[in-house]
């Protein structure tokens, strides 16, 4: 018996457990025991490498081995896989003899059947390994014969080993090749590599240690060995030490490697699976599962099978609602369709999204809630809405058709941008792909204004992560083509994208060059950067005003950043006016996402001012400019947070709760915008008398903001809310420290008065929704350096001692004194039992008593003293 080699090749790192299991099957085969094993795993996980390893192991043991490697081309040849198996098991002369012995009038099926029977006879009495790589790409004729062959061969010693990214059951069902009798199948899945394993693979491939940060690039496509090999080969090809400028190239290599393998996998998927993948590429972020199934033309069973297959392949994210694992893969999926097919799919998606009963033009589209500002659609509304949508379809179709005409590169770039703006509502992912195409494929001196416009529009969609690497790539290639003066707006957009999404600084030259104020766009981004840090308020005002005085030369997103800087510096009238101007200009240029972002920023400022109804009106305008389903997942948390907080400022707590819950149904990207939603949910938790959960949310919110150096409390006063949570949990000293720290930052920024008003409005809104605010927090908290400005007042010994309990804690204590148990108190006060328990805990701590009996004794003694 042959021993298992101790060395595992680098490409098989992380696969030892699967290899050990398969080696066990080979040993069982040597002992005359048959098995069927399926190696599965997502795109690029190394299934073929594992199969090759087992084939080498079996040949080294002297076993008969038949190997078939299926491919999209082979899938078009009848009996292609079976022919490969015969060719590797028999000598060529033997196959020729078999073929010559078959009469000329025999049918192909009879020929293959006789060859298979001969194969069984030849292999009788000796162990045989039948290995088929990428079974899902095998032709249907081979699949049916292979099932029969393995089933009949099991009267001898046969190990059937196949690889497939999709469940074998679905592959066989699609080919009508179900076995006559069920057989036990061992399924072995290859999962994503760990960080340590991934680093080992890359270092083994390049032959030297690599920076840990490089591995974040491989995360773009899921830590698969194939992607890691592509990244390693790109590192080797650079021929120089890694630096920031190399990151975009590594990301591009990773995406290309993953996408190439995913498209190869796509060729062998059943029709229902392909239909769902295409439907998800078009409407994955707009349609719920039932409508997504309708768009793909699948019933419930076929839809569930297709979802399982796509998730097994690693093409869908692990979410309740089907979503592409990588949004950028939608471009590749749609590129594989003909123009008429794409148009039909887009029209069906638009009709499903806008069918009767849906509400369009408000945040309720995404959050599932209807405010007083929204009315249900009527039949006349639907009839009226169908006209512009039909017009948009015609415009989109004509623009797509015009791209086939011979035009100059500059004209093609402009048409792509016009098509992207037309598709922004019905097919936002496709629109993003058009913008990336302009930036990456049409970079020249003549098209530079269009490239810059495309970068601005791409960033306005909220996908800061994609915008970062595309801008970095474009900037690197433009250094030798475009004058430095014209490159500065692109650097500003790259710096702005970096602020919204963390990670490695991708823009070259290094970000320090973005702080140069030689261009108004750079002044705008620098103003916003300093404003988020809470530094140099006077300079922020000067920079922002300078940038906004030259709107024609500044991209929309930089103008929005400058206006937000003015708002955080307490220049509210100017900030709101400039945002209004941006929204108007963006609408005129069909830059719907930029207009929506400007209006969202206006809504957030109205929330900070305590104007809930005005904020809801701004949000309605924002979602009329761009329907919520078209907002990117990295920007959607800000929209959801604004909706929740606006409803809370209006006292509509139940609607805010529903809005928060329904926001969970949409995927949330990891960016600084998530901090806004965490804060909104924390306010809800305080209102729901759950300070522990509120504190967890607020601490995560603060962590995310600090990680991005967003220290200015004028943006999110998370410490004020956290102080309330600490107070309810009995940590008054920690709460006071938070308030003092927040106040110090506001004073250093230069807006102590505006911040005091913001804190008062925030705490007042919480109090108005039933949250108990400590009396000491009602006004501003004095800073440490002002505590000695005046002598302390002498206490009034004649005044009665203040009651240490809050009114709600006093209510609970009185009912305890009356003899009610917690459940009865909760029913009497309309509270949850847990809330009663929490208030009693606070009461025990404040009064220095231990337990219920001690509390009753304390209260009775106090009554007697009174």
Question: What are the SSEs and their pairings?
Answer:
Elements: H1 16-30, E1 35-40, H2 47-60, E2 64-69, H3 80-89, H4 92-100, H5 108-123, E3 128-133, H6 140-153, E4 158-163, H7 168-175, E5 186-189, H8 195-206, H9 215-218, H10 225-238, H11 247-267, H12 271-283, H13 289-296, H14 300-313, H15 329-335, H16 339-353, H17 364-367, H18 379-402, H19 409-423, H20 428-441, H21 448-460, H22 464-478, H23 484-500, H24 520-533, H25 537-548, H26 556-568, H27 572-588, H28 592-608, H29 612-625, H30 636-649, H31 653-663, H32 674-687, H33 691-707, H34 718-728, H35 732-749, H36 752-768, H37 807-817, H38 822-829, H39 833-847, H40 852-865
Parallel strand pairs: 1-4, 1-5, 2-3, 3-4
Organism: Streptomyces chartreusis
Protein name: AAA family ATPase
Domain HTH luxR-type: 798-863
Within the largest sheet, what's the order of strands?
2-3-4-1-5
Return the CATH topology of the largest domain.
Rossmann fold
How many helices does DSSP assign?
A: 40
N-to-C CA distance? 94 Å
Strand content: under 5%
**Fourth CATH level, the homologous superfamily of the largest domain:** P-loop containing nucleotide triphosphate hydrolases
Structural class: mainly alpha
Number of strands: 5
Provide the residue-averaged pLDDT: 76
Q: What integer value in Å does the Rg equal?
A: 33 Å
User: How many domains make up the 3D coordinates?
Assistant: 6
The main sheet comes to: 5 strands, parallel
Low-confidence parts, pLDDT < 50 over ≥5 residues? 1-10, 355-394, 502-516, 779-801
Assembly form of the protein:
single chain
Helix content: 55-70%
- Principal-axes geometry comes out as globular
Any idea what the CATH architecture of the largest domain is? 3-Layer(aba) Sandwich
What is the CATH top level name of the largest domain? Alpha Beta
């Amino acid at each position: 018996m042959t021993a298992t080699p101790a060395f595992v090749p680098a490409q098989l790192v992380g696969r030892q457990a699967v290899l050990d299991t398969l080696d066990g099957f080979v040993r069982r085969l040597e002992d005359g025991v048959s098995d069927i094993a399926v190696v599965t795993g997502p795109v690029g996980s190394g299934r073929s490498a594992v199969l090759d390893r087992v084939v080498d192991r079996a040949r080294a043991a002297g076993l008969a081995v038949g190997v078939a490697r299926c491919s999209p081309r082979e899938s078009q040849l009848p009996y292609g896989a079976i022919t490969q198996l015969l060719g590797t098991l028999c000598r060529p002369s033997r196959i020729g003899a078999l073929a010559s012995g078959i009469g000329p009038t025999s049918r192909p099926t009879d020929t293959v059947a006789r060859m298979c029977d001969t194969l069984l006879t030849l292999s009788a009495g000796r162990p045989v390994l039948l290995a088929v790589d990428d079974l899902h790409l095998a032709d249907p004729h081979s699949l049916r014969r292979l099932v029969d062959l393995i089933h009949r061969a099991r009267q001898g010693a046969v190990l059937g080993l196949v690889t497939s990214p999709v469940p074998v059951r679905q592959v066989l069902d699609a080919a009508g090749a179900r076995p006559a009798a069920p057989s036990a199948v061992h399924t072995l899945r290859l999962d994503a590599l760990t960080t340590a394993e991934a680093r080992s693979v890359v270092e083994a491939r390049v032959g030297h240690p690599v920076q840990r940060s490089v591995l974040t690039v491989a995360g773009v496509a899921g830590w698969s060995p194939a992607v890691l090999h592509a990244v390693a080969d790109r590192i080797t090809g650079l021929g120089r030490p890694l630096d920031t400028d190399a990151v975009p190239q590594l990301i591009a290599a990773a995406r290309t490697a993953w996408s190439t393998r995913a498209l190869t996998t796509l060729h062998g998927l059943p029709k229902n699976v392909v239909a769902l993948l295409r439907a998800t590429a078009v409407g994955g972020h707009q349609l719920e599962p039932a409508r997504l199934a309708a768009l793909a033309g699948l019933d419930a069973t076929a839809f569930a099978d297709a979802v399982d297959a796509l998730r097994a392949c690693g093409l869908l994210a692990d979410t309740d609602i089907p979503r592409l694992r990588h949004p950028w893969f939608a471009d590749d999926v749609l590129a594989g369709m003909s123009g008429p097919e794409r148009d039909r799919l887009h029209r069906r998606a638009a009709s499903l999204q806008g069918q009767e009963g849906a509400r369009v033009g408000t945040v309720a589209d995404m959050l599932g809630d209807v405010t007083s500002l929204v009315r249900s659609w009527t039949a006349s509304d639907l009839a009226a809405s169908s006209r512009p949508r039909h017009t948009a379809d015609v415009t989109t179709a004509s623009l797509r058709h015009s791209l086939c005409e011979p035009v100059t590169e500059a004209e093609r770039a402009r048409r792509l941008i016009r098509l992207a703006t037309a598709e922004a509502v019905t097919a936002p992912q496709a629109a993003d792909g058009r913008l990336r195409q302009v930036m990456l494929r049409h970079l020249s001196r003549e098209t530079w204004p269009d490239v810059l416009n495309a970068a601005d529009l791409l960033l306005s969609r909220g996908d800061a992560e994609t915008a970062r690497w595309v801008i970095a790539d474009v900037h690197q290639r433009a250094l030798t083509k475009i004058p430095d003066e014209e490159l500065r707006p692109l650097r500003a957009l790259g710096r702005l994208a970096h602020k919204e999404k963390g990670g490695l600084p991708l823009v070259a030259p290094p970000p320090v060059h973005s702080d140069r104020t030689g261009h108004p766009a750079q002044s705008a981004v620098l103003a916003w950067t300093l404003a988020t840090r809470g530094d140099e308020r006077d300079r922020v005002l000067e920079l922002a005003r300078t940038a906004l005085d030259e709107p024609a030369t500044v991209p929309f997103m930089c103008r929005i950043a400058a206006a937000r800087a003015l708002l955080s510096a307490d220049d509210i009238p100017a900030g709101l006016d400039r945002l209004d101007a941006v929204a108007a200009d963006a609408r005129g240029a069909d830059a719907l996402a930029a207009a929506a972002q400007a209006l969202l920023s206006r809504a957030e400022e109205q929330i900070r001012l305590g104007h809930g109804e005005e904020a809801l009106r701004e949000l309605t305008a924002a979602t009329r400019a761009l329907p919520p389903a078209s907002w990117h997942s990295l920007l959607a948390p800000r929209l959801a947070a604004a909706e929740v907080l606006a409803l809370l400022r209006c006292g509509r707590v139940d609607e805010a709760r529903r809005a928060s819950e329904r926001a969970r149904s949409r995927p949330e990207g990891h960016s600084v915008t998530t901090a806004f939603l965490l804060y909104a949910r924390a306010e809800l938790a305080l209102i729901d008398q759950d300070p522990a959960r509120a504190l967890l949310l607020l601490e995560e919110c603060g962590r995310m903001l600090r990680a991005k150096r967003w220290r200015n409390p004028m943006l999110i006063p998370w410490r004020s809310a956290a102080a309330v949570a600490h107070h309810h949990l009995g940590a008054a000293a920690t709460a006071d420290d938070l308030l003092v720290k927040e106040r110090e930052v506001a004073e250093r920024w230069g807006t102590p008065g505006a911040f005091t008003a913001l804190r008062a409005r925030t705490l007042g809104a919480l109090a108005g929704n039933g949250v108990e605010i400590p009396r000491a927090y009602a006004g501003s908290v004095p800073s440490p350096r002002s505590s000695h400005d005046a002598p302390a007042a002498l206490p009034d010994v004649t005044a009665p001692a203040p009651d240490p309990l809050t009114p709600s804690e006093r209510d609970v204590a009185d009912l305890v004194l009356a003899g009610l148990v917690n459940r009865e108190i909760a029913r009497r006060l309309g509270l949850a039992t847990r809330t009663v328990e929490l208030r009693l805990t606070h009461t025990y701590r404040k009064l220095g008593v231990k337990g219920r009996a001690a509390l009753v004794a304390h209260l009775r003694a106090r009554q007697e003293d009174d």
